[in-house]
Protein backbone atom coordinates (compact mmCIF):
# COMPACT_ATOMS: atom_id res chain seq x y z
CA UNK A 1 0.00 0.00 0.00
CA UNK A 2 2.94 2.30 0.69
CA UNK A 3 3.61 3.25 -2.93
CA UNK A 4 0.35 5.16 -3.01
CA UNK A 5 1.05 7.17 0.11
CA UNK A 6 2.32 10.69 -0.46
CA UNK A 7 1.76 10.27 -4.19
CA UNK A 8 0.15 12.93 -6.31
CA UNK A 9 -2.42 10.96 -8.27
CA UNK A 10 -4.24 12.92 -10.96
CA UNK A 11 -5.19 10.16 -13.38
CA UNK A 12 -6.63 6.68 -12.99
CA UNK A 13 -6.65 3.92 -15.59
CA UNK A 14 -9.10 1.12 -14.98
CA UNK A 15 -9.37 -2.31 -16.49
CA UNK A 16 -12.98 -3.26 -17.23
CA UNK A 17 -13.51 -7.02 -17.10
CA UNK A 18 -12.80 -8.36 -13.62
CA UNK A 19 -12.58 -4.86 -12.11
CA UNK A 20 -15.85 -3.09 -12.96
CA UNK A 21 -17.79 -6.21 -13.86
CA UNK A 22 -17.59 -9.96 -14.04
CA UNK A 23 -19.44 -11.21 -17.10
CA UNK A 24 -22.67 -9.21 -17.19
CA UNK A 25 -22.71 -8.31 -13.49
CA UNK A 26 -21.26 -5.21 -11.84
CA UNK A 27 -18.77 -6.09 -9.09
CA UNK A 28 -20.23 -4.88 -5.76
CA UNK A 29 -19.11 -1.33 -4.90
CA UNK A 30 -17.62 -0.60 -8.32
CA UNK A 31 -20.38 1.72 -9.58
CA UNK A 32 -20.08 3.84 -6.44
CA UNK A 33 -16.27 3.78 -6.68
CA UNK A 34 -16.34 5.33 -10.15
CA UNK A 35 -18.70 8.01 -8.90
CA UNK A 36 -16.28 8.84 -6.08
CA UNK A 37 -13.36 9.16 -8.51
CA UNK A 38 -15.38 11.53 -10.69
CA UNK A 39 -16.45 13.61 -7.70
CA UNK A 40 -12.81 13.93 -6.67
CA UNK A 41 -12.05 15.42 -10.09
CA UNK A 42 -9.65 12.70 -11.23
CA UNK A 43 -9.15 12.03 -14.93
CA UNK A 44 -10.34 8.50 -15.73
CA UNK A 45 -9.93 6.18 -18.69
CA UNK A 46 -11.08 2.61 -19.03
CA UNK A 47 -8.18 0.72 -20.59
CA UNK A 48 -9.49 -2.61 -21.82
CA UNK A 49 -8.38 -5.42 -24.07
CA UNK A 50 -12.05 -6.17 -24.71
CA UNK A 51 -12.54 -7.35 -28.28
CA UNK A 52 -15.83 -9.22 -28.13
CA UNK A 53 -17.92 -6.12 -28.76
CA UNK A 54 -17.54 -2.67 -30.27
CA UNK A 55 -16.62 0.28 -28.07
CA UNK A 56 -20.14 1.66 -28.49
CA UNK A 57 -21.76 -1.58 -27.32
CA UNK A 58 -19.35 -1.92 -24.39
CA UNK A 59 -20.10 1.65 -23.30
CA UNK A 60 -23.84 1.02 -23.53
CA UNK A 61 -23.57 -2.18 -21.48
CA UNK A 62 -21.55 -0.43 -18.75
CA UNK A 63 -23.96 2.51 -18.63
CA UNK A 64 -26.79 -0.05 -18.29
CA UNK A 65 -25.01 -1.47 -15.25
CA UNK A 66 -25.06 2.03 -13.71
CA UNK A 67 -21.51 3.23 -14.45
CA UNK A 68 -20.98 6.93 -15.00
CA UNK A 69 -18.93 7.06 -18.21
CA UNK A 70 -18.96 8.03 -21.87
CA UNK A 71 -17.95 6.04 -24.91
CA UNK A 72 -14.87 8.18 -25.45
CA UNK A 73 -13.55 7.26 -21.97
CA UNK A 74 -13.21 3.63 -23.05
CA UNK A 75 -9.95 2.69 -24.77
CA UNK A 76 -10.05 -0.74 -26.44
CA UNK A 77 -7.23 -1.86 -28.75
CA UNK A 78 -9.29 -2.07 -31.95
CA UNK A 79 -9.21 1.62 -32.99
CA UNK A 80 -5.41 1.72 -32.55
CA UNK A 81 -5.07 -1.39 -34.72
CA UNK A 82 -7.34 0.02 -37.44
CA UNK A 83 -5.16 3.17 -37.55
CA UNK A 84 -2.05 1.00 -37.89
CA UNK A 85 -3.61 -1.16 -40.64
CA UNK A 86 -4.49 1.93 -42.67
CA UNK A 87 -1.10 3.56 -42.12
CA UNK A 88 0.82 0.48 -43.25
CA UNK A 89 -1.52 -0.55 -46.08
CA UNK A 90 -2.34 -3.81 -44.35
CA UNK A 91 -5.14 -6.00 -45.71
CA UNK A 92 -6.13 -8.28 -42.85
CA UNK A 93 -7.46 -11.78 -42.71
CA UNK A 94 -9.65 -11.52 -39.61
CA UNK A 95 -9.95 -14.14 -36.90
CA UNK A 96 -12.13 -12.05 -34.61
CA UNK A 97 -15.47 -12.06 -32.82
CA UNK A 98 -18.29 -11.41 -35.32
CA UNK A 99 -19.59 -8.55 -33.14
CA UNK A 100 -16.48 -6.41 -33.79
CA UNK A 101 -16.51 -6.80 -37.58
CA UNK A 102 -18.08 -3.29 -37.94
CA UNK A 103 -14.82 -1.83 -36.54
CA UNK A 104 -13.12 -3.05 -39.75
CA UNK A 105 -15.62 -1.49 -42.18
CA UNK A 106 -13.75 0.42 -44.84
CA UNK A 107 -10.62 -1.72 -44.52
CA UNK A 108 -9.63 -3.67 -47.64
CA UNK A 109 -9.62 -7.37 -46.72
CA UNK A 110 -8.94 -8.78 -50.20
CA UNK A 111 -5.69 -10.65 -50.87
CA UNK A 112 -4.59 -10.50 -47.19
CA UNK A 113 -1.05 -9.48 -46.22
CA UNK A 114 -1.53 -9.98 -42.48
CA UNK A 115 -3.65 -11.86 -39.96
CA UNK A 116 -5.50 -10.19 -37.08
CA UNK A 117 -6.51 -12.27 -34.08
CA UNK A 118 -8.68 -11.09 -31.22
CA UNK A 119 -10.84 -12.75 -28.58
CA UNK A 120 -13.00 -14.62 -31.10
CA UNK A 121 -14.61 -16.84 -28.42
CA UNK A 122 -16.78 -19.46 -30.16
CA UNK A 123 -15.26 -18.41 -33.48
CA UNK A 124 -11.98 -20.06 -32.38
CA UNK A 125 -12.92 -23.29 -34.14
CA UNK A 126 -10.28 -25.68 -35.45
CA UNK A 127 -11.36 -24.75 -38.96
CA UNK A 128 -10.94 -21.00 -38.40
CA UNK A 129 -7.62 -21.36 -36.58
CA UNK A 130 -6.31 -23.61 -39.33
CA UNK A 131 -7.45 -21.17 -42.00
CA UNK A 132 -5.60 -18.32 -40.25
CA UNK A 133 -2.52 -20.54 -40.04
CA UNK A 134 -2.70 -21.35 -43.76
CA UNK A 135 -3.00 -17.68 -44.68
CA UNK A 136 0.07 -16.88 -42.53
CA UNK A 137 2.27 -19.75 -43.69
CA UNK A 138 1.65 -18.89 -47.33
CA UNK A 139 2.70 -15.25 -46.94
CA UNK A 140 6.10 -14.14 -48.13
CA UNK A 141 6.47 -11.86 -45.09
CA UNK A 142 3.87 -13.02 -42.58
CA UNK A 143 2.61 -10.49 -40.05
CA UNK A 144 0.35 -11.45 -37.17
CA UNK A 145 -1.41 -8.78 -35.08
CA UNK A 146 -2.87 -9.82 -31.75
CA UNK A 147 -5.32 -7.63 -29.86
CA UNK A 148 -3.83 -8.15 -26.40
CA UNK A 149 -2.23 -11.37 -25.30
CA UNK A 150 -4.07 -12.30 -22.12
CA UNK A 151 -3.89 -15.93 -21.07
CA UNK A 152 -7.38 -16.13 -19.60
CA UNK A 153 -10.09 -14.01 -18.04
CA UNK A 154 -13.02 -14.47 -15.72
CA UNK A 155 -16.39 -14.71 -17.41
CA UNK A 156 -19.39 -15.07 -15.11
CA UNK A 157 -17.21 -16.61 -12.44
CA UNK A 158 -15.36 -19.16 -14.60
CA UNK A 159 -11.86 -18.78 -16.05
CA UNK A 160 -11.97 -18.67 -19.86
CA UNK A 161 -9.20 -18.96 -22.47
CA UNK A 162 -8.20 -15.55 -23.85
CA UNK A 163 -6.69 -14.48 -27.17
CA UNK A 164 -3.07 -14.98 -26.01
CA UNK A 165 -3.46 -18.74 -25.93
CA UNK A 166 -4.62 -18.85 -29.55
CA UNK A 167 -2.02 -16.30 -30.65
CA UNK A 168 0.65 -18.56 -29.13
CA UNK A 169 -0.62 -21.49 -31.21
CA UNK A 170 -0.37 -19.48 -34.45
CA UNK A 171 3.07 -18.11 -33.48
CA UNK A 172 4.32 -21.62 -32.78
CA UNK A 173 2.97 -23.19 -35.95
CA UNK A 174 3.98 -20.37 -38.31
CA UNK A 175 7.26 -19.70 -36.47
CA UNK A 176 6.67 -15.96 -36.16
CA UNK A 177 6.22 -13.42 -33.39
CA UNK A 178 2.91 -11.61 -33.11
CA UNK A 179 2.76 -7.81 -32.86
CA UNK A 180 0.58 -7.02 -29.85
CA UNK A 181 -1.83 -4.07 -29.82
CA UNK A 182 -3.28 -3.46 -26.34
CA UNK A 183 -2.09 -4.10 -22.81
CA UNK A 184 0.73 -4.71 -21.86
CA UNK A 185 2.20 -2.95 -24.94
CA UNK A 186 3.86 0.28 -23.64
CA UNK A 187 2.59 2.46 -26.50
CA UNK A 188 -0.98 1.54 -25.57
CA UNK A 189 -0.48 2.95 -22.06
CA UNK A 190 1.56 5.96 -23.17
CA UNK A 191 -0.87 7.10 -25.88
CA UNK A 192 -3.68 7.12 -23.32
CA UNK A 193 -1.60 9.12 -20.82
CA UNK A 194 -0.75 11.67 -23.53
CA UNK A 195 -4.44 12.02 -24.29
CA UNK A 196 -5.17 12.48 -20.55
CA UNK A 197 -2.29 14.97 -20.16
CA UNK A 198 -1.14 13.01 -17.15
CA UNK A 199 2.46 12.04 -16.35
CA UNK A 200 3.11 8.33 -15.65
CA UNK A 201 4.19 9.02 -12.05
CA UNK A 202 0.83 10.74 -11.42
CA UNK A 203 -1.19 7.81 -12.75
CA UNK A 204 -2.50 4.61 -11.19
CA UNK A 205 -3.62 1.51 -13.10
CA UNK A 206 -6.05 -0.85 -11.38
CA UNK A 207 -6.51 -4.30 -12.90
CA UNK A 208 -7.02 -8.00 -12.29
CA UNK A 209 -4.30 -9.13 -14.72
CA UNK A 210 -0.96 -9.25 -12.92
CA UNK A 211 1.05 -9.11 -16.16
CA UNK A 212 -1.15 -7.21 -18.63
CA UNK A 213 -2.47 -4.57 -16.25
CA UNK A 214 -0.06 -4.29 -13.31
CA UNK A 215 3.21 -5.23 -15.01
CA UNK A 216 2.36 -3.31 -18.17
CA UNK A 217 1.59 -0.17 -16.19
CA UNK A 218 4.68 -0.42 -13.98
CA UNK A 219 6.90 -0.82 -17.06
CA UNK A 220 5.68 2.62 -18.13
CA UNK A 221 6.28 4.23 -14.73
CA UNK A 222 2.69 4.08 -13.45
CA UNK A 223 1.64 2.76 -10.06
CA UNK A 224 0.15 -0.70 -10.56
CA UNK A 225 -2.63 -1.94 -8.28
CA UNK A 226 -3.95 -5.51 -8.34
CA UNK A 227 -7.53 -6.30 -7.33
CA UNK A 228 -8.61 -9.57 -5.77
CA UNK A 229 -11.62 -9.81 -8.09
CA UNK A 230 -12.14 -11.17 -11.61
CA UNK A 231 -9.43 -13.58 -12.69
CA UNK A 232 -7.31 -12.91 -9.58
CA UNK A 233 -5.70 -16.02 -8.07
CA UNK A 234 -3.75 -16.09 -4.81
CA UNK A 235 -0.66 -17.25 -6.74
CA UNK A 236 -0.61 -13.81 -8.43
CA UNK A 237 0.68 -12.37 -5.14
CA UNK A 238 3.83 -14.48 -5.53
CA UNK A 239 4.40 -13.70 -9.20
CA UNK A 240 8.09 -14.20 -10.07
CA UNK A 241 8.57 -10.89 -11.89
CA UNK A 242 5.63 -8.55 -11.21
CA UNK A 243 5.18 -7.08 -7.73
CA UNK A 244 2.13 -4.82 -7.47
CA UNK A 245 2.50 -1.48 -5.70
CA UNK A 246 -0.68 -2.36 -3.83
CA UNK A 247 -3.07 -5.29 -3.64
CA UNK A 248 -6.68 -4.51 -2.73
CA UNK A 249 -9.80 -6.61 -2.23
CA UNK A 250 -11.73 -4.81 -4.94
CA UNK A 251 -12.06 -1.56 -6.88
CA UNK A 252 -13.89 0.14 -4.01
CA UNK A 253 -10.93 -0.42 -1.69
CA UNK A 254 -8.47 0.68 -4.39
CA UNK A 255 -10.35 3.92 -4.95
CA UNK A 256 -10.50 4.63 -1.20
CA UNK A 257 -6.71 4.20 -1.08
CA UNK A 258 -6.21 6.63 -3.94
CA UNK A 259 -8.53 9.22 -2.42
CA UNK A 260 -6.86 8.87 0.99
CA UNK A 261 -3.42 9.41 -0.59
CA UNK A 262 -4.58 12.77 -1.95
CA UNK A 263 -5.61 14.18 1.41
MG1 LIG B 1 -9.42 -7.78 -16.59
TrEMBL record:
Its EC number is 3.6.1.1. This is Phospholysine phosphohistidine inorganic pyrophosphate phosphatase. Keywords: Cytoplasm, Hydrolase, Magnesium, Metal-binding, Nucleus. GO terms for cellular component: cytosol; nucleus. It is found in: Cytoplasm; Nucleus. It is an enzyme of class 3 (hydrolase). It comes from Coptotermes formosanus. Pfam families: Hydrolase_6, Hydrolase_like. Its cofactor is Mg(2+).
